[in-house]
Amino acid sequence: MATATGELLLRERPATLKTESKSSPTDAVTAMDRAAEELISATLRDLRPGDGLLGEEGGERAGATGVRWIVDPLDGTVNYVYGLPLWSVSIAAEVDGVVVAGVVRAPALGRTYAAYAGGGAWREDLEGRGPIRSSEVSELGMSLVGTGFGYSSERRAEQATVVAALLPCVRDIRRLGSAALDLCLVADGELDAYYERGLNAWDVAAGAVIAREAGAEVRGFTGRWPDADMTLACAPGIADRMVDVLGLPAIP
Ligand code: LIP
Questions:
Q1: What is the reported pTM?
Q2: Which atom of ligand 1 is least distant from the CA of 77?
Q3: How confident is the model at residue 11 (pLDDT cuts 50, 70, 90)?
Q4: Region for 58 from its dihedrals, namely left if φ exceeds 0, alpha if ψ lies in -120 to 50, beta otherwise
Q5: Cβ(179)–Cβ(148) under 8 Å?
Q6: What number does the ligand 1 atom closest to the CA of 74 have?
Q7: Disulfide check for 50: which of 58, 65, 95, 188 has CB 3.0–4.6 Å away?
């Protein structure tokens, strides 16, 4: 389903992609976001008719089975609009209120990340499929840290102070533009940490399960929503320092 949606987004992208704005002029949504969500919604309705759905683009329906699908049909819309490859399809399965499985498809990278609770995490690409693990880094000063910023100028001003304080303490910062993919890169050891404030369930649900199953420390996501406002996924060796510099409650 994630692969088919990724193919739709890759193959049906019009030469001229019109965007509309949501929460602010820079918070873009396109007809492709909606088409992708409609494809996932219709597929789930056929395959799992009694399940619930929560989709970023308004697709929401109650379920009767205790299973709810949490969907970001196109995460990293701005990258997609600009023709940058860092965007993804994120689909998570929640059972009785706890997210237990997730898949993130990055079509332009040819990668699929997936995990289920207790089953580990893996990546599949043209070279095959294999397990993934978060990095072994133990020094914050040698850590590559991903983050992201909201769409309101007030929130961005706050986020700028956080990243300004962090920048001298880490190896470097990356702002890649898709939370779901950022979380998978932490799971795969290609980022040592990722944090962002103000994400929605659909941005985080699948990537957080994948990161946790890959051995990363994941904060702000207990699997139940609503969760904390700050999402953090990082290598265990720097978790205490990341929690400290971000001003989060200490890890018990
Ligand atoms: C995006 C997130 C990203 C965040 C952006 C935006 P969208 O989701 O994946 O991490 O920094 O502001 O929220 O809007 O492309 O689905």
A1: 0.93
A2: 15
A3: very high
A4: left
A5: yes
A6: 16
A7: 65
